[in-house]
Write a structure and sequence with these properties.
flat; single chain; mainly alpha; about 80% helix
């Protein structure tokens, strides 16, 4: 059986990628709109990932 050994960061990026693709395909009609929305949502996920990560880092200490 194939086993993936991902860090938390890699798993979060993979989740962001797949979620962005699904949201773009489901919500937009043209390929150009899908690409733009997919990139936009992926960027928002990554910004939120880093923002929440730093918030937890500073809140923990």
């Amino acid at each position: 059986m194939f086993k993936m050994n991902l860090s938390h960061f890699e798993a979060a990026l993979l989740f962001a990628l797949f979620t962005s693709v699904v949201l773009a395909v489901v919500t937009k009609r043209t390929d150009r709109d899908r690409l733009n929305y997919g990139v936009y949502t992926f960027a928002c996920f990554v910004v939120a990932l880093f923002g929440l990560g730093w918030l937890m880092y500073f809140g923990h200490g």
